[in-house]
Design goal:
The complex is a heterotrimer of chains A (about 800), B (about 290) and C (about 160). Chain A has about 800 residues and is an alpha+beta fold. Chain A contains 18 helices and 36 strands. In chain A, strand 23 and strand 24 form a beta hairpin. In chain A, helix 9 runs parallel beside helix 17 and helix 12 runs parallel beside helix 13. The radius of gyration of chain A is 27 Å and the shape is globular. Chain B has 2 domains: about 160 residues, Uridine Diphospho-n-acetylenolpyruvylglucosamine Reductase, domain 3 (2-Layer Sandwich); about 90 residues, 2-Layer Sandwich (Enolase-like, domain 1), CATH 3.30.390. Chain B contains 12 helices and 14 strands. Chain B has a 5-stranded antiparallel β-sheet. A 4-stranded antiparallel β-sheet of chain B has the order 11-12-13-14. Chain C has 2 domains: about 80 residues, Beta-grasp domain (Ubiquitin-like (UB roll)); about 60 residues, DNA polymerase, domain 1. Classes of the chains: A alpha+beta (about 800), B alpha+beta (about 290), C alpha+beta (about 160).
C-alpha cells in the first residue's frame, strides 16, 4: 500500500455492509408497493415450435390480467445495447411468435397474489406446432436443419440466417492475410469475403495457405469442448413496475445498467425517457447475467401498463435457469513454435451454440479473438468464430465473456507445447507473453491500446516460489490411489472497453459530485456494484481527491432521472471507467472548492492544499508555505451558503481512452483420487495485477470468489441438455446442478493471494479492474494440475469423476 | 406441467393431530387421499415439482408419542424424531455409531433440524443415508393403524425405489434395533459430488474385532445407492469373518464390493464408475473403524 | 379453502396471521409480515438463502408450511442485531464475508446458530455447519474467517427462544 494515500488502499467498512448484514438491503425482488399485483410467466414446454394459438379465456375468467404476443409492441430489439447499433443483431420481441427454447417466456399473467397468478397461468391453453429442435450447434448448423430463424436484423438491415448461423467473425493477423502472390497485407479488422489485391489476385481468407506455419518446428493441434454452465447468481431475475399517473412508469429491476434498461423500454413502449425512471437497487449477483435487460423486465412492464397497477415479477429458480447460461465453446487450436520456444503462428476456430436468441454473440467472437491474441504474441494469427443458434436458453456473458473458454484452450495448449519442447511452462510463457509496451485488444479488434502496466513476470516468479513450482512431480509419476499435481495458468481481463478512439463498443460513464453544507459529500453515479466493491472504490476515490474523510462521503440513492448515462457495469470497468468518471468529476469539484476557498482565504487556489483531518471528520484547505491559514471544507460550504454563493458541485461524463489489462496468475495444487475420480484443490496461489489496490480486502475477495467459481466450472457445473427432450438435464433444480459448498474449498491457510506492485498511469490513482480476471484462468490451472498429477490431459469441461476414473483406468491398462 | 418453487401450488386440507389416536383415526377415515407430512424436506420439494399431490396432508411432528429416543433395551426411536436430535444423542454416537455418522452426512444442519428418521425411511430413496446404517443394526419397523400394528424388518419394508409396503391407513411408529454385543465398531461412508449431495454410493460397516489378535470375529455390511434400495452384502460379510485386519483383506473386501456392484446394476450407465469408486469407500470404512 | 389462524412470535413480537394450508413460511414472513430479509434462492432446500431460526434452530422457511409453525418462536435476520450489531454481524463486515449480500441473511442466521451451540468452532466445523448455505461470490473464506474471529475471544450473545409473555 502506498503510504501517501489517506484512504486508497485502506481496509474500510463496506458502505452497504450494515444494510446487508441486517437484512435491510432492498433488492428488486424485495420491493413492495401499495396495490401491487403479482405476475407469473407462462413458459414453453417444448423446445422449438410455432405458437398456433394461446387461449387465455379461463385465466381471464379468474380475474387475471393476461399478456400474449398480440398485447406487446412488435418491436425487435436486442436486450444488450452495449455495441453500436450497426453492429447489433436484433431478434427479440417482448413475447415471441415462435418458441425457440424450452422454458421460453411466451405469455404472462398478473393477479392479486402469486398463487392466483400461477393458478391462472396454468389455465392458459397453448397450441404448439412442434418443429425439430437442436441442442448441439453442429447439428443446428447442418444444411437442411430446421431454421430457428429465417432472418433477423443487423442494425437497420435484414440479416438472413443461413444454416442457423447467428454471426461469424474471422480475423487474421500477419501472413494469414497476406496475398499469396505478392505478400501485401490486408486490413485484418474487416471481415470480407474476398480481398482484391493490387496484383490481381482475389484471395478468400477462408483458404489457409498454410504458409504461416512454415517456420514452425513444432506444431500442435488440439480440440477443446467447454460446457454451458449457469450463472447461479443468488437473486433470481426480478422486476417491479409502477405506472405513473402522468404516463410512463418507475421500475426496479435486476440490472447491471439502469440506463440501458430505460433506453430499451423507452424504445419498445414508445415512451420518452423523461417519463421512465429506473431506480437503482442492490443486485443479488450479476456475473454478466444482467448486462442485458432481463427477459422478464419488459414483460413485467407490459403487464403493469395493461393493468394500470404496479406489478411484481420474480422468477423462480427453475425459470431463471432456463433463461440464461454461459457461452459454451468447441475449439480447434493449432499452434506452431520454434524449437527454442518462440511462437510462430496460431489458428483458433470456435463454434459456439448460443441458444435461442443472439444476446451478444458478435462482440463475443470479437472478444474471443482478442483474448486469444492478447495472451501471447502470435506474429501470425488466425481466428475463425461461428455462433450458431440452438434451441436452448440464450447464452450471455458470464464472468470473462469468452475469456475463460479461450484461456482454457490456449493455456492447456501452452503447457503441452512446453512439454513438447522440453521447456519449463513458466519459461515458455515468459518468452511469449503480451506485456508492457505491447498492443492489447482484449475487447475485440476495434478496441486497442498499449499496455502501460504489467506485473506478469513478478507474479510468475513470486507464485512459483509460493507453491514450490520447481519441486512439483513429473506428470503422472505418482503412485497410490491419490495423485498429487501442481498446475499453472495465467490470465488477464480488460479494464473496460475504452480505447483511443470510440469503436464498436460504447463505453463512457457519468457522475455528479456535490459538497454539502457541512462538508460532507454526495456522489451520484449510476454504476452498479455486484458486491465486489465498485461503490466503495468510488467513495474512496472522491474521498482521496477532496480529502473529505470516508465516513463523510456517500453514494446517493440514484435512478435514471437524476444521473447521466453509464453504459454498464461489466467488462471489469466499474472501477477503471465508472469510478474513473467520478474521479474526473471530483477533480472539477476540487478546482471549484479551492477557488471558493481561495476567495475566503484571500489566496490563489494554486497556493492552497487539501489535507484530510480524520479526527474532525473534515477535509481541510490549508495554505502552502509559511501562512497557516486553514478552513475546513464544511466551513467553506457553510459560508458559501450564507453568502448565497451556490453549491460547489460538478457533473460530467468521461470516456476512458485505454483498456488496460489486469493480469492474474494461478498456481494450484490438486489431489486426484483414482478410484472416485474426485479432484480436490488442496492449495491455491493466486496473484493479481490490478495496479493500485483501492480496496485490498475486497480485491482479495474477488480472487477467492473466482477460485470458487473456477473450481465449479472445471469440475462440477454443467447446464447440459437432454437431446431427446430439449430440457435441461437438471430441469432447473438446484439439487441436480452441482455447485461448490464451503467444504470443497481448500483449507484457509492453503489459499494464498497477493498483488503485484504495479501502477496504471491511466487509471484513477493508478488502479485497473480485476473482477473477471479472477476467474479466467482457474479452470486452466486446475486442468494443468490434473495433468501433472495423472499424466492424462482433459480437454473437456467439466472434468467429471466418471471421466477421470475411466481415463485413469485406460491409462493403467495401456489403452491410452 | 409448470412448476413454481416459490410457492406451493397444490391445494389440500391440512390436519394437525395432537395424539397418535387422533392421527390414526384421521388416516383411517380419509384414506387413501390423506398423506403424512413430517419434516417436509422430501414431501414439499416433491409437491413443488409436481411429483406428488394429495387431498389431505397430516402433520405429525407435534405428536409427542412419535418423538423419542429409548436406550433402555437396545435402541428404539420414534419415527418423528428429528435427525438433529438423533445426531446429538450420546448413546447413539457411542453404541450405534454408523447411524450417528449416517445422519451427520445428510443434507445440512437446517435440513436435519426439520427432517425425521421416519421420513428418511418412508421416502425410501435409493441413496437414503439412514437405511444402510439401520440395516446393519437389524432394524425393525413398527407400523401402526387404527386397531392394529405390525412389525416388519427394514429390509422387507422397502421394496424398491421410493416403494414401501406401508398400507393406506398405516403410520410408521418407531424403529427398533436390538442391543448390540459389546465391542461392535461401526461406521458409515458416503460418496457425493459435493458435501450436501445425495449419495452416489453409501455404505455402513460394522465389525466385532478382537483387539488382541486384530481379527474380525463378525462383520456386517450394507450398501446403498447401488440399485433400487440398500441391502446387506452377505458375501462381503462372510469374506471378512475370521480374517485378520490387514491390507490384503481390505483389498479383498474392496474386490467383493466391486462384484456386488457388477451383480446389482449390470448394464447401468453408472456401473463402470461405481464399481471403482466403491473401493475407496471400502478403504475409508476400515480407516474410520480402526481410528 | 379452509384457512388457519396462526400465532407466531417473530423477532420477539407476537404476530397473528390467517393462512391457507399451502402457504409457506417464507412467503408469510416476506409478504404478510413484510420481513424481506429472508430470501428466496431455490425453493427446494438446497441453497440456504431462506434460513431462519425456529425455536433457536436454523431451518429452511421455503420448506415449512406456515400452518405447521403455529405457536413457534421465529427469529429472522431482522431479529439479529436489531438494536446493536451482533458480533457475528460485525465480523462479517470486517472480514470480507459480504459481497452481493443475497446469501448474507441466511449465512448470518446459520453462523449465529453455530456460535450459540459451539462458541469456538474449528475451520472444519464451520465449513461443515454452513455447507447448506450457497455463496456464489465470496468463495466462503471471508465467511469462515468471520465466524472464526467470533470464536477467538469475541463476545457472543446467545439467541434466546423466549416467548413474549
Amino acid at each position: 500500500m502506498d503510504n501517501h494515500f489517506d484512504v486508497i488502499g485502506s481496509v474500510l467498512p463496506k458502505k452497504d455492509g450494515i444494510a446487508k448484514v441486517t437484512g435491510k438491503e432492498i433488492y428488486a425482488s424485495d420491493v413492495e408497493l401499495p396495490d401491487m399485483m403479482h405476475a407469473v410467466v407462462l413458459r414453453s414446454t417444448v423446445a422449438h415450435a410455432e405458437i398456433k394459438s394461446i387461449d387465455t379465456s379461463e385465466a381471464e375468467a379468474m380475474g387475471a390480467i393476461c399478456l400474449v404476443p398480440d398485447d406487446v409492441p412488435q418491436v425487435y430489439y436486442n436486450e444488450r445495447i452495449v455495441s453500436i447499433p450497426e453492429k447489433t443483431y436484433r431478434d427479440r420481441l417482448v413475447l415471441p411468435r415462435k418458441v425457440r427454447h424450452y422454458g421460453e417466456a411466451i405469455a404472462a399473467v398478473a393477479a392479486e397474489t402469486e398463487e392466483e397468478a400461477f393458478a391462472a397461468m396454468q389455465k392458459i391453453k397453448v397450441e404448439y406446432k412442434e418443429l425439430p429442435f437442436y441442442t448441439d450447434p453442429l447439428e443446428a448448423n447442418k444444411p437442411g436443419a430446421a431454421p430457428i430463424y429465417e432472418s433477423v436484423f443487423l442494425g437497420e438491415n435484414k440479416f438472413d440466417v443461413v444454416n442457423n448461423v447467428a454471426c461469424e467473425r474471422n480475423i487474421t493477423v500477419g501472413i494469414f492475410n497476406c496475398c499469396p502472390t505478392c505478400g501485401t497485407r490486408f486490413d485484418y479488422s474487416c471481415r470480407l469475403d474476398e480481398y482484391h489485391c493490387g496484383c490481381g489476385i482475389v484471395y478468400t481468407p477462408a483458404e489457409d495457405d498454410g504458409k504461416a506455419f512454415d517456420n514452425a518446428e513444432v506444431i500442435l493441434e488440439k480440440e477443446y469442448d467447454l460446457s454451458r454452465v449457469y450463472h447461479a447468481q443468488m437473486e433470481t431475475k426480478s422486476a417491479v413496475c409502477r405506472p405513473e399517473p402522468e404516463g410512463g412508469f418507475t421500475l426496479w429491476t435486476t440490472t447491471q445498467s439502469i440506463h440501458n434498461v430505460r433506453i430499451l423500454l423507452g424504445e419498445i413502449f414508445s415512451i420518452p425517457l423523461n417519463k421512465i425512471n429506473v431506480k437503482r437497487v442492490a443486485l443479488g449477483g450479476g456475473f454478466g447475467s444482467s448486462i442485458q435487460m432481463n427477459s422478464i423486465t419488459p414483460i413485467c412492464t407490459a403487464l403493469a401498463l395493461k393493468a394500470r397497477r404496479p406489478v411484481k415479477l420474480v422468477s423462480s429458480r427453475e425459470e431463471d435457469m432456463y433463461d440464461h447460461h454461459k457461452y459454451p465453446a468447441k475449439f480447434k487450436f493449432k499452434i506452431g513454435a520454434t524449437k527454442d520456444g518462440k511462437i510462430v503462428a496460431g489458428h483458433l476456430t470456435v463454434i459456439v451454440g448460443i441458444g435461442g436468441h443472439n444476446v451478444q454473440a458478435y462482440p463475443l467472437l470479437g472478444c474471443m479473438a482478442g483474448w486469444y491474441a492478447s495472451l501471447y504474441k502470435f506474429p501470425n494469427l488466425k481466428f475463425e468464430g461461428t455462433a450458431v443458434y440452438t434451441n436452448q436458453a440464450p447464452c450471455c456473458a458470464m464472468q470473462g465473456y469468452g475469456n475463460p473458454q479461450v484461456n482454457f484452450a490456449v493455456e492447456s495448449t501452452i503447457d503441452m507445447l512446453a512439454e513438447e519442447l522440453g521447456m519449463d511452462p513458466i519459461e515458455l510463457r515468459l518468452k511469449n507473453y503480451v506485456g508492457l509496451g505491447d498492443e492489447f485488444w482484449g475487447q475485440g479488434p476495434t478496441v486497442k491500446s498499449t499496455i502501460k502496466s504489467c506485473g506478469v513476470e513478478e507474479m510468475l516468479e513470486r507464485g512459483s516460489k509460493m507453491i514450490d513450482w520447481y519441486e512439483r512431480p513429473q506428470p503422472g509419476s505418482g503412485d497410490g490411489n491419490v495423485l498429487r499435481g501442481v498446475g499453472l495458468a495465467r490470465g488477464f481481463h480488460t479494464s473496460g472497453t475504452g480505447g483511443p478512439k470510440p469503436g464498436e463498443v460504447i463505453d463512457y460513464s457519468s457522475a455528479s459530485v456535490k459538497i454539502n453544507e457541512d462538508g460532507s459529500v454526495d456522489i451520484m453515479t449510476p454504476i452498479m456494484d455486484h458486491g465486489g466493491g465498485t461503490w466503495d472504490a468510488a467513495v474512496k476515490i472522491v474521498s482521496e481527491l477532496l480529502k473529505v474523510p470516508y465516513e463523510m462521503v456517500s453514494l446517493s440513492p440514484t435512478d435514471t432521472r437524476t444521473t447521466g448515462y453509464d453504459v454498464n457495469t461489466h467488462a471489469t470497468r466499474g472501477v477503471y471507467c465508472g469510478c474513473g468518471a467520478a474521479y474526473h468529476v471530483a477533480l472539477k469539484v476540487k478546482q471549484e472548492l479551492l477557488t471558493v476557498a481561495g476567495q475566503f482565504l484571500e489566496e490563489h487556489p494554486h497556493d492552497l492544499d487539501l489535507i484530510m483531518d480524520k479526527e474532525s471528520g473534515q477535509g481541510v484547505i490549508v495554505t502552502k508555505g509559511l501562512d497557516c491559514k486553514r478552513m475546513t471544507v464544511g466551513e467553506v460550504a457553510a459560508k458559501a451558503r450564507v453568502l448565497s454563493m451556490g453549491t460547489i458541485a460538478a457533473t460530467g461524463s468521461y470516456r476512458q481512452k485505454n483498456c488496460p489489462p489486469c493480469f492474474v496468475t494461478n498456481f494450484v495444487e490438486v489431489e486426484v483420487d483414482k478410484r472416485t475420480g474426485q479432484i480436490r484443490v488442496v492449495k491455491s496461489v493466486t496473484l493479481g495485477d490490478c495496479g493500485t489496490t483501492i480496496n485490498p480486502d475486497m480485491l482479495e475477495g474477488q480472487l477467492v470468489g473466482g477460485l470458487n467459481r473456477g473450481i465449479g466450472y472445471s469440475t462440477l457445473e454443467e447446464a447440459s441438455y437432454d437431446p431427446k427432450t430439449g430440457k435441461l438435464n437438471c430441469e432447473g433444480f438446484y439439487d441436480s446442478y452441482k455447485m461448490t459448498t464451503a467444504v470443497e474449498m481448500p483449507p484457509l491457510n492453503k489459499i494464498e493471494t497477493g498483488f503485484a506492485s504495479t501502477y496504471e498511469p491511466t487509471g484513477p490513482f493508478g488502479a485497473k479492474g480485476l473482477g473477471e480476471a479472477a476467474v479466467n484462468s482457474i479452470a486452466s490451472a486446475i486442468a494443468n494440475a490434473v495433468y501433472n498429477a495423472t499424466g492424462v490431459r482433459f480437454t473437456k469441461l467439466p472434468i467429471t469423476p466418471a471421466e477421470v476414473v475411466a481415463a485413469l483406468k485406460a491409462k493403467d491398462e495401456g489403452r491410452i | 406441467m409448470h412448476t413454481n418453487t416459490r410457492i406451493l401450488a397444490h391445494n389440500f386440507v391440512y390436519h394437525e393431530p395432537k395424539t397418535l389416536d387422533e392421527a390414526l383415526t384421521l388416516l383411517d377415515k380419509h384414506k387413501p387421499g390423506i398423506k403424512i407430512l413430517a419434516g417436509g424436506t422430501d414431501v414439499l420439494p416433491k409437491m413443488k415439482r409436481n411429483h406428488f399431490e394429495c387431498e389431505r396432508l397430516m402433520y405429525i411432528k407435534n405428536i409427542k408419542e412419535l418423538s423419542f429416543i429409548d436406550n433402555s433395551n437396545g435402541l428404539k426411536i420414534g419415527a418423528a424424531t428429528l435427525l438433529s436430535d438423533l445426531e446429538k444423542s450420546p448413546e447413539i454416537k457411542q453404541n450405534y455409531h454408523a447411524l450417528h455418522e449416517a445422519i451427520k452426512a445428510i443434507g445440512a444442519i437446517a435440513i436435519r433440524n426439520m427432517a425425521t428418521i421416519g421420513g428418511n425411511i418412508c421416502n425410501a430413496a435409493p441413496p437414503a443415508d439412514t437405511v444402510p446404517a439401520l440395516l446393519i443394526f437389524d432394524a425393525q419397523l413398527k407400523l401402526v393403524k387404527l386397531g392394529g400394528e405390525r412389525t416388519v424388518p427394514l429390509n422387507q419394508f422397502i421394496t424398491g425405489a421410493e416403494q414401501t409396503i406401508i398400507e393406506h391407513g398405516e403410520l410408521l411408529h418407531s424403529i427398533e434395533m436390538p442391543e448390540l454385543t459389546g465391542g461392535l465398531l461401526s461406521t458409515f461412508v458416503k460418496l457425493g459430488r459435493v458435501s450436501v449431495d445425495t449419495a452416489r454410493i453409501n455404505m455402513a460397516v460394522a465389525a466385532d474385532i478382537d483387539g488382541s489378535s486384530n481379527t474380525i470375529k463378525t462383520a456386517r455390511v450394507a450398501l446403498g445407492a447401488v440399485g433400487t434400495k440398500a441391502y446387506r452384502c452377505p458375501d462381503s460379510e462372510a469374506l471378512l469373518a475370521g480374517k485378520k485386519v490387514d491390507e490384503s483383506v481390505i483389498l479383498a473386501f474392496a474386490d467383493s464390493l466391486t462384484s456386488v456392484c457388477d451383480y446389482a446394476i449390470p448394464g447401468r450407465y453408472s456401473l463402470p464408475y461405481k464399481r471403482e469408486a466403491v473401493r475407496k469407500l471400502a478403504e475409508d470404512a476400515f480407516k474410520q473403524l480402526l481410528s | 379453502m379452509e384457512t388457519h389462524q396462526i400465532e407466531l412470535t417473530v423477532n420477539g413480537r407476537r404476530r397473528s396471521v390467517n393462512v391457507k394450508p399451502n402457504e409457506l413460511l417464507i412467503n408469510v414472513l416476506r409478504n404478510d409480515l413484510h420481513l424481506t430479509g429472508t430470501k428466496y434462492g431455490c425453493g427446494i432446500g438446497e441453497c440456504g438463502a431462506c434460513t431462519v431460526l425456529l425455536e433457536g434452530k436454523p431451518v429452511l422457511a421455503c420448506l415449512i408450511l406456515a400452518a405447521s409453525a403455529n405457536g413457534a418462536t421465529i427469529t429472522t435476520i431482522e431479529g439479529i442485531g436489531a438494536e446493536k450489531l451482533d458480533p457475528v454481524q460485525e465480523a462479517f463486515i470486517d472480514h470480507g464475508a459480504i459481497q452481493c449480500g443475497f446469501c448474507t441473511p441466511g449465512m448470518v442466521v446459520t453462523a449465529k446458530a453455530l456460535l450459540d451451540e459451539n462458541p469456538q468452532p474449528t475451520e472444519a466445523e464451520i465449513k461443515d455447519y454452513i455447507r447448506g448455505n450457497v455463496c456464489r461470490c465470496t468463495g466462503y473464506t471471508g465467511i469462515i474467517k468471520a465466524v472464526q474471529s467470533c470464536g477467538c475471544g469475541g463476545e457472543h450473545k446467545k439467541v434466546t427462544a423466549k416467548k413474549q409473555p
